[in-house]
Amino acid sequence: MPKQVNGPKRDPAIQNELNDSFKEEVKAFLSDEDKLHLLDDLTKVNPVTTTTVLKCLQARYTVDVFYTYAGCSLVAVNPFQPICRLYLPELMKEYHTALRPQELKPHIFAMAEQTYRNVESQIEPINQSIIVSGESGAGKTWTSRCLMKFYATVAASSTSPKGSETVERIEKRVLDSNPVMEAFGNACTLRNNNSSRFGKYIQLQLNRSQHLTSASIQTFLLEKTRVAYQAPRERNFHIFYQVCARLINLGISKVH
Ligand SMILES: Nc1ncnc2c1ncn2[C@@H]1O[C@H](COP(=O)(O)OP(=O)(O)OP(=O)(O)O)[C@@H](O)[C@H]1O
After folding, report:
1. Per-residue pLDDT tens for 245-255?
2. Alpha helices (runs of H) in the chain, residue ranges in sequence order
3. 81-108 average pLDDT score
4. Cα 69 to ligand 1 centre (Å)
Protein backbone atom coordinates (compact mmCIF):
# COMPACT_ATOMS: atom_id res chain seq x y z
CA MET A 1 0.00 0.00 0.00
CA PRO A 2 1.40 3.45 -0.79
CA LYS A 3 2.40 5.49 2.23
CA GLN A 4 0.42 8.68 2.90
CA VAL A 5 2.67 11.69 2.44
CA ASN A 6 1.85 14.82 4.50
CA GLY A 7 4.19 17.25 2.79
CA PRO A 8 7.96 17.27 2.72
CA LYS A 9 9.69 16.01 5.87
CA ARG A 10 11.84 18.67 7.55
CA ASP A 11 15.26 18.13 8.99
CA PRO A 12 14.75 17.95 12.84
CA ALA A 13 17.47 20.58 13.33
CA ILE A 14 15.71 23.01 10.98
CA GLN A 15 12.37 22.22 12.63
CA ASN A 16 13.83 23.02 16.08
CA GLU A 17 15.24 26.26 14.78
CA LEU A 18 11.88 27.23 13.32
CA ASN A 19 10.13 26.38 16.60
CA ASP A 20 12.63 28.51 18.50
CA SER A 21 12.26 31.47 16.17
CA PHE A 22 8.45 31.17 16.40
CA LYS A 23 8.64 31.19 20.21
CA GLU A 24 10.87 34.28 19.99
CA GLU A 25 8.28 36.00 17.78
CA VAL A 26 5.49 35.23 20.26
CA LYS A 27 7.67 36.50 23.11
CA ALA A 28 8.53 39.70 21.24
CA PHE A 29 4.86 40.33 20.45
CA LEU A 30 3.79 39.84 24.05
CA SER A 31 6.64 41.95 25.44
CA ASP A 32 4.96 45.07 24.03
CA GLU A 33 2.28 44.70 26.70
CA ASP A 34 1.39 48.39 26.90
CA LYS A 35 0.33 48.44 23.25
CA LEU A 36 -1.68 45.21 23.13
CA HIS A 37 -4.97 46.95 23.95
CA LEU A 38 -4.56 49.20 20.91
CA LEU A 39 -5.01 46.30 18.50
CA ASP A 40 -8.63 46.74 17.47
CA ASP A 41 -8.52 43.95 14.88
CA LEU A 42 -7.29 40.46 15.67
CA THR A 43 -5.95 40.16 12.12
CA LYS A 44 -3.23 42.56 13.27
CA VAL A 45 -2.07 40.04 15.88
CA ASN A 46 1.17 38.49 14.67
CA PRO A 47 1.97 35.65 15.15
CA VAL A 48 -1.55 34.31 15.58
CA THR A 49 -1.64 31.83 18.45
CA THR A 50 -4.24 31.15 21.12
CA THR A 51 -2.01 32.94 23.64
CA THR A 52 -1.42 36.08 21.55
CA VAL A 53 -5.12 36.42 20.64
CA LEU A 54 -6.29 35.87 24.21
CA LYS A 55 -3.65 38.25 25.61
CA CYS A 56 -4.83 40.93 23.19
CA LEU A 57 -8.49 40.47 24.19
CA GLN A 58 -7.50 40.42 27.86
CA ALA A 59 -5.48 43.64 27.50
CA ARG A 60 -8.49 45.35 25.89
CA TYR A 61 -10.84 43.99 28.56
CA THR A 62 -8.55 45.41 31.27
CA VAL A 63 -9.02 48.92 29.84
CA ASP A 64 -12.80 48.41 29.48
CA VAL A 65 -12.80 47.78 25.75
CA PHE A 66 -15.16 44.91 25.02
CA TYR A 67 -15.41 44.81 21.23
CA THR A 68 -12.66 43.79 18.80
CA TYR A 69 -12.80 43.03 15.09
CA ALA A 70 -11.54 39.78 13.65
CA GLY A 71 -11.60 40.75 9.99
CA CYS A 72 -15.24 41.17 9.08
CA SER A 73 -16.44 39.46 12.29
CA LEU A 74 -16.81 41.08 15.67
CA VAL A 75 -15.64 39.54 18.93
CA ALA A 76 -17.63 40.70 21.98
CA VAL A 77 -16.35 40.01 25.47
CA ASN A 78 -19.05 39.99 28.14
CA PRO A 79 -18.31 42.75 30.72
CA PHE A 80 -20.79 41.18 33.20
CA GLN A 81 -21.79 44.66 34.33
CA PRO A 82 -23.91 47.40 32.74
CA ILE A 83 -21.74 49.77 30.68
CA CYS A 84 -24.30 52.45 29.90
CA ARG A 85 -21.99 54.68 27.85
CA LEU A 86 -21.63 51.86 25.31
CA TYR A 87 -25.28 51.79 24.29
CA LEU A 88 -26.38 55.43 24.35
CA PRO A 89 -28.75 56.63 21.59
CA GLU A 90 -26.15 59.28 20.66
CA LEU A 91 -23.66 56.52 19.95
CA MET A 92 -26.19 54.75 17.73
CA LYS A 93 -26.58 57.99 15.81
CA GLU A 94 -22.81 58.40 15.52
CA TYR A 95 -22.45 54.97 13.89
CA HIS A 96 -25.52 55.51 11.74
CA THR A 97 -24.36 58.84 10.34
CA ALA A 98 -20.65 57.99 10.03
CA LEU A 99 -19.19 58.02 6.53
CA ARG A 100 -17.41 54.74 7.23
CA PRO A 101 -18.76 53.13 10.42
CA GLN A 102 -16.14 50.37 10.21
CA GLU A 103 -13.47 53.00 10.79
CA LEU A 104 -14.95 53.94 14.16
CA LYS A 105 -14.15 51.87 17.23
CA PRO A 106 -15.28 48.21 16.97
CA HIS A 107 -18.87 48.01 18.14
CA ILE A 108 -22.02 45.98 17.58
CA PHE A 109 -23.58 49.17 16.16
CA ALA A 110 -20.93 49.21 13.41
CA MET A 111 -21.91 45.68 12.39
CA ALA A 112 -25.58 46.60 12.56
CA GLU A 113 -25.06 49.71 10.45
CA GLN A 114 -22.94 47.92 7.85
CA THR A 115 -25.64 45.27 7.43
CA TYR A 116 -28.28 47.98 7.12
CA ARG A 117 -26.23 49.71 4.42
CA ASN A 118 -25.72 46.42 2.57
CA VAL A 119 -29.50 46.08 2.34
CA GLU A 120 -29.81 49.69 1.23
CA SER A 121 -27.24 49.25 -1.54
CA GLN A 122 -29.57 46.68 -3.15
CA ILE A 123 -26.51 44.69 -4.23
CA GLU A 124 -26.97 40.92 -3.91
CA PRO A 125 -27.43 39.40 -1.40
CA ILE A 126 -30.08 41.94 -0.43
CA ASN A 127 -31.19 39.73 2.45
CA GLN A 128 -28.60 40.08 5.17
CA SER A 129 -28.05 37.86 8.20
CA ILE A 130 -26.17 38.46 11.42
CA ILE A 131 -25.11 35.30 13.23
CA VAL A 132 -24.69 35.78 16.96
CA SER A 133 -22.87 32.79 18.36
CA GLY A 134 -20.97 31.91 21.49
CA GLU A 135 -21.02 29.66 24.51
CA SER A 136 -23.71 29.88 27.15
CA GLY A 137 -23.53 33.19 29.01
CA ALA A 138 -21.39 34.84 26.32
CA GLY A 139 -23.99 37.56 25.73
CA LYS A 140 -25.91 36.44 22.63
CA THR A 141 -29.32 37.48 23.98
CA TRP A 142 -27.88 40.82 25.06
CA THR A 143 -26.34 41.37 21.63
CA SER A 144 -29.61 40.48 19.86
CA ARG A 145 -31.43 43.03 22.00
CA CYS A 146 -28.83 45.68 21.09
CA LEU A 147 -29.36 44.90 17.41
CA MET A 148 -33.13 45.15 17.80
CA LYS A 149 -32.82 48.49 19.58
CA PHE A 150 -30.46 49.77 16.91
CA TYR A 151 -32.79 48.87 14.04
CA ALA A 152 -35.82 50.17 15.90
CA THR A 153 -34.03 53.52 16.13
CA VAL A 154 -32.46 53.83 12.71
CA ALA A 155 -35.16 52.13 10.67
CA ALA A 156 -37.97 54.31 12.00
CA SER A 157 -39.37 56.74 9.46
CA SER A 158 -38.31 60.26 10.43
CA THR A 159 -40.69 61.91 7.98
CA SER A 160 -43.87 60.00 8.68
CA PRO A 161 -45.08 59.90 12.30
CA LYS A 162 -47.14 56.86 11.32
CA GLY A 163 -43.95 55.09 10.26
CA SER A 164 -42.20 55.69 13.59
CA GLU A 165 -45.36 54.51 15.36
CA THR A 166 -45.21 51.25 13.39
CA VAL A 167 -41.57 50.73 14.36
CA GLU A 168 -42.30 51.47 18.01
CA ARG A 169 -45.13 48.96 17.90
CA ILE A 170 -42.95 46.30 16.28
CA GLU A 171 -40.12 46.91 18.73
CA LYS A 172 -42.52 46.82 21.68
CA ARG A 173 -44.12 43.60 20.47
CA VAL A 174 -40.81 41.86 19.95
CA LEU A 175 -39.41 43.03 23.27
CA ASP A 176 -42.70 42.30 25.09
CA SER A 177 -42.70 38.75 23.76
CA ASN A 178 -39.36 38.15 25.50
CA PRO A 179 -40.69 37.57 29.06
CA VAL A 180 -43.20 35.03 27.72
CA MET A 181 -40.63 33.20 25.59
CA GLU A 182 -38.09 33.32 28.40
CA ALA A 183 -40.60 31.92 30.90
CA PHE A 184 -41.12 28.81 28.75
CA GLY A 185 -37.65 28.53 27.23
CA ASN A 186 -35.14 29.90 29.76
CA ALA A 187 -33.77 28.32 32.90
CA CYS A 188 -31.16 28.89 35.55
CA THR A 189 -27.98 26.94 34.71
CA LEU A 190 -24.56 26.87 36.31
CA ARG A 191 -23.30 29.32 33.66
CA ASN A 192 -26.20 31.71 33.34
CA ASN A 193 -29.14 32.46 35.66
CA ASN A 194 -31.30 33.20 32.64
CA SER A 195 -30.00 30.83 30.01
CA SER A 196 -31.98 30.48 26.77
CA ARG A 197 -32.47 26.76 26.23
CA PHE A 198 -33.57 27.22 22.61
CA GLY A 199 -32.38 28.88 19.43
CA LYS A 200 -33.97 31.96 17.96
CA TYR A 201 -34.28 33.12 14.38
CA ILE A 202 -35.41 36.73 14.33
CA GLN A 203 -36.44 38.26 11.03
CA LEU A 204 -36.87 41.98 10.47
CA GLN A 205 -38.50 43.16 7.27
CA LEU A 206 -37.79 46.54 5.73
CA ASN A 207 -39.69 48.25 2.95
CA ARG A 208 -38.05 49.92 -0.06
CA SER A 209 -37.48 53.07 1.99
CA GLN A 210 -35.48 51.04 4.51
CA HIS A 211 -38.13 51.38 7.20
CA LEU A 212 -39.03 48.54 9.52
CA THR A 213 -42.42 47.12 8.58
CA SER A 214 -42.64 43.79 10.38
CA ALA A 215 -40.79 41.22 12.44
CA SER A 216 -41.07 37.54 13.20
CA ILE A 217 -39.40 35.18 15.64
CA GLN A 218 -38.99 31.47 15.06
CA THR A 219 -37.75 29.24 17.83
CA PHE A 220 -36.02 25.91 17.46
CA LEU A 221 -34.15 23.16 19.32
CA LEU A 222 -35.83 23.65 22.71
CA GLU A 223 -34.02 21.57 25.35
CA LYS A 224 -37.15 19.54 26.21
CA THR A 225 -35.28 17.00 28.36
CA ARG A 226 -34.92 19.73 31.02
CA VAL A 227 -38.60 19.26 31.92
CA ALA A 228 -37.85 15.77 33.27
CA TYR A 229 -34.21 16.13 34.31
CA GLN A 230 -31.98 18.97 35.49
CA ALA A 231 -28.27 18.69 36.27
CA PRO A 232 -27.37 19.23 39.96
CA ARG A 233 -27.74 22.89 41.00
CA GLU A 234 -29.61 23.73 37.79
CA ARG A 235 -33.31 24.45 37.48
CA ASN A 236 -36.30 23.65 35.34
CA PHE A 237 -37.82 26.26 32.99
CA HIS A 238 -38.80 29.48 34.80
CA ILE A 239 -42.52 28.92 34.10
CA PHE A 240 -42.77 26.08 36.66
CA TYR A 241 -41.52 28.30 39.48
CA GLN A 242 -43.68 31.20 38.32
CA VAL A 243 -46.82 28.98 38.38
CA CYS A 244 -45.89 27.61 41.83
CA ALA A 245 -45.24 31.12 43.18
CA ARG A 246 -48.65 32.26 41.94
CA LEU A 247 -50.39 29.24 43.49
CA ILE A 248 -48.68 29.90 46.82
CA ASN A 249 -49.81 33.54 46.59
CA LEU A 250 -53.37 32.33 46.05
CA GLY A 251 -53.07 29.98 49.05
CA ILE A 252 -53.35 26.84 46.89
CA SER A 253 -51.05 24.13 48.18
CA LYS A 254 -52.16 21.20 46.00
CA VAL A 255 -52.82 20.89 42.28
CA HIS A 256 -53.88 17.81 40.36
N1 LIG B 1 -22.56 43.78 26.61
C2 LIG B 1 -23.02 43.48 27.82
N3 LIG B 1 -23.06 44.41 28.78
C4 LIG B 1 -23.52 44.13 30.01
N5 LIG B 1 -23.94 42.91 30.41
C6 LIG B 1 -23.91 41.93 29.51
C7 LIG B 1 -23.45 42.15 28.16
N8 LIG B 1 -23.52 40.97 27.50
C9 LIG B 1 -24.03 40.08 28.37
N10 LIG B 1 -24.26 40.64 29.56
C11 LIG B 1 -24.80 39.97 30.76
O12 LIG B 1 -24.33 38.63 30.76
C13 LIG B 1 -25.36 37.73 31.13
C14 LIG B 1 -25.46 36.59 30.13
O15 LIG B 1 -25.79 37.13 28.87
P16 LIG B 1 -26.84 36.44 27.86
O17 LIG B 1 -28.02 35.92 28.61
O18 LIG B 1 -27.05 37.40 26.76
O19 LIG B 1 -25.97 35.19 27.38
P20 LIG B 1 -26.35 34.13 26.25
O21 LIG B 1 -25.14 34.00 25.39
O22 LIG B 1 -27.62 34.49 25.58
O23 LIG B 1 -26.50 32.83 27.15
P24 LIG B 1 -27.35 31.48 26.90
O25 LIG B 1 -26.77 30.83 25.67
O26 LIG B 1 -27.09 30.70 28.15
O27 LIG B 1 -28.77 31.90 26.74
C28 LIG B 1 -26.65 38.53 31.22
O29 LIG B 1 -26.98 38.62 32.59
C30 LIG B 1 -26.33 39.88 30.67
O31 LIG B 1 -26.91 40.87 31.45
Report:
1. 999 889 887 77
2. 12-31, 50-62, 89-97, 108-120, 140-154, 161-185, 238-249
3. 94
4. 19
